[in-house]
Amino acid sequence: MNYLAHAYLSFGQDQVLVGNFIGDFVKGKMMDTFPQEVQNGIKLHRAIDLYTDTHPLVKAGQTYLRPKFRHYSTVITDIFFDHFLAKNWEKYSDIPLLDFTQNTFSILKHHRQLFPDRFANMFDWMVKDNWLLKYRDIDGIRQTLTGMSRRTRFPSKMEVAHLSLIEKEAEFEVIFFAFFKDLETFAREKLLEIQHSNAGH
C-alpha cells in the first residue's frame, strides 16, 4: 500500500505512524535504534505490504495491468488504492482529508530526528506537494506515477498508467472496497499482536 493507507492504518498512534512511514527505508540493524512503538510501526508496515502483495483480489487487479506494466503493476495498484481511499475518504474517517493529511505531517515533523536520511529528503517534497491529498484526483495520480517513472532504472510506462485507471476505474474500485475491508481488519489485529508480543518480553 502507499502512504495514505499506511497513515490511516496507523490507527491514531503517533509513533506507529512514524514507523509505518519510514518502513521501506529501515534496513537490518537500523531497526534496533528506534523506540519500540516506532519499531512496531515498521513491522506493521511490512506486514501490510506482504498481506497486500499476496491478496487474491490485489492479484486479480494486477492481472489487467501486468501485460503492459509487468512488475511495476504492484507499485501502480498501491497508488490506485490510495486514490480510492482518498476519493472515498468520508466512508472511512470523520476527519476531513485535508485536516488528516496536515495532522499526519505535523506528527511526522515532530519525530523528524528519527527519519533515515533518504526518507527525510523525500518527506520535504511530500509535505510541499501534499502527496496524501494529491492522490484524490486523477491528475494527482498522473503526476505521482510520472515522477516515479522518471526514477526507475528501466522504462516502466508508469507515466501512462493513469489511463488504465480511467479505463477500468469502476472495476478497480470494486476490488479496492472488498480488499480494503480485509486489510483494515488484518492491520488492526496484526498491530495488537505485534504490541502484545513486545509487551511480553
Polypeptide structure, described:
This protein has 201 residues and is mostly helical. 72% of the residues lie in helices and 0% in strands. It is globular.
What is the residue-mean pLDDT, rounded to a whole number? 95
Count the DSSP helices: 11
Termini separation comes to 30 Å
Chain oligomer state: single chain
Uncertain segments are none
Strand content: under 5%
Helix/sheet category: mainly alpha
Shape: globular
Rounded to an integer in angstroms, the radius of gyration calculated over CA atoms is 16 Å
Task: Summarize the amount of helix as a percent range.
Answer: over 70%
Order of helices and strands: HHHHHHHHHHH
What would you say about this model in short?
Helices cover 72% and strands 0% of the residues. The protein is an all-alpha fold. Helix 9 packs antiparallel against helix 10.
What's the layout of helices and strands?
Blueprint: H1 3-8, H2 14-22, H3 36-54, H4 56-69, H5 73-87, H6 97-110, H7 117-128, H8 131-134, H9 138-151, H10 161-167, H11 169-199
Helix pairs in contact: 2-3, 3-11, 4-5, 4-11, 5-9, 5-11, 9-10
